[in-house]
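Quick question about two entries, pasted in order.
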Amino acid sequence: MNKLYGFGNALIDIEVSITDRDLDYLNIPKGNMKHISAEERDIYLQKFKNNIISYQPGGSIANSIYAFSDNQKDSFFGCSLGQDKFRDQFLEGFDNLTSVVINESDQDTGVCFIFVTSDGERTMASYLGANEDLSEKVISEDILRDCDAAIFDSFSVFTSSGFKTLKFCLDLARKHDVDIFFGLSDSELIKMNKEKVNWIISKGIDYVFGNKIEIQTLCSFCQIDNNKIIQTNGKSGASFNDIEVKAPPTVVENTNGAGDAFIGTFIANLNKKDITQTLTDSVNYAARVCETNGPRQKKRH
């Protein structure tokens, strides 16, 4: 596929090195995510100020769009941003690889704390901020009609504004025969929004992607064809259409953004290679992301 349109949360990832004991304080199950208020954001910034590893542009779909673009393809990303220092940092993070359609918000640009434990696992706390103002404005029909696929995930579509944006995007995608990729981000979030997930799947989604736990959670309450499921299996690799590939040996710095990078690369190579090669290239790209401190590989061109 050569052109991809995505929309989703625009975030600055604040990576923080913590211990398992710190996770007890955060009250977030390891490997999961919770939403936090502006007050909690400020508390975390103060409490963990000496443990911050980096500030990196992030957001799951934004990371996938970046990986797609890094495979020398054209991409477009719709998002909502505030008028603050993080706005410029987020936009600079695309390295001019992607065209961005922006909804202007009076709220602060969103941030996501990526709490990284010694095993490389990441646990997240997200302040949505400006992302709560995501709207149909971030979807350009003139651009979408010329794209091969559209991508979004459960992180961004379960707010009221995000769900409206989803419906608008689905209608346009179906009108212009654009393939749709839906990401299952966070199993607890999926459980909390079963009705919406069932509705989304019922609209003829072409592909669903997520890790093994997220896919199992979906299949526990929703029927979906196996040939629509793209599954990441962590250190074990990934699978699609009963084809599995192993991940290469990797020295993991942290896993933040690996799944995002995988799916971006997978979409970029879906129609030009056989599935085994597409899976292999995508897993290898994701592995390189695991070897970095941020959620994205440094651009290659």
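Here is the second entry:
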Amino acid sequence: MYSLIKDKKSPYYQLLYTQESGKRTTISTHCKIKSDALKFLTLFKDKLIETTKPTVITLKDFNAQYKEFSIMKHSKNYLRSYKSAYKIFLTEFSEDTVMSKLNVTDLERFFLQRFSESKFGAHLNYRTLKAALEKAVEWNYISYNPLKKIKMPKLPQKNVLIISQEDFQSILAHEPNSTFIRIYEFARGTGMRLSEILNLTWGQIEFANNVITVMNSDSFTTKSKKERVIPISNKVNEVLQSVRPNLVWIDIMNQYVFSNKGLMFNPEYISKRFKKSVRKAEVNNSYHFHHLRSSFASDLIAKGVSIFLVQKLLGHSSVAVTERNYAHLQTDSLKEAIYLL
């Protein structure tokens, strides 16, 4: 939609038009006479159509390009999520579909149907594909991201699972390998993600200042893309001292803190190993390695640590994420405090 307008603020006609994304934009024609402004409008429309015309590409070709990009840019977990989301996406859309033909109506119907089948799965698929389509806009395959116009239904509140100290000790008792015991204890004592733990090198640990710096490197990027500092507790210090190399003259700064003969552990292997110990211990079968992180947060909140400090230690992108997951624990702590009055 295009229209010429004129106001008292400028002697020139202004061109008001609506972009495909729905955003209304105004630019000056630098023309005082309407006939000249109309000529500007014609030239502007032709130029806009030419410059914004998307490159024709099918979902199949985009998928191949985006996977190659994701291998270099994103984590293995993200790539796995994308492949899963794309596979589900193909239950509704053909690989021969031209990307510029994707529309809000069809996509909204697809995601609402997906939500009725799997609420949390639908939200994960939506976020993953939304990021992919944003890259498609950047690559000029589509003029705007249609998923930005779709508002997904809210997810039901789901409290995070906490591993009790009793259950945790039972899990440790059913793990015969001391290296994995140390990894589990370290995770519970720092709240670090498994990928952060396995990429941790001795150069990130400052025993003099008693802190661990979770940082980005050429081969690893934190989930939030930000670095953070985690103080070393007495228990975590015990774990680190137990796995610290004895030969101090060897340069260990770039060596992994937890490794398989110097090589990085496969995160899936660690996760499955932890799950195996959970089953042997006959505790809650829903426990996963990631719940060691939520248990760390729970321990802090139970001791009265503010939700803002918990957010910093966990490395959440915002305090809203932390509140969404742990607000109920904070409420329980407040109740206990009131009962002491």
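Reply: The chain has a mean pLDDT of 87. The chain is about 50% helix and 5% strand. Hope that helps.
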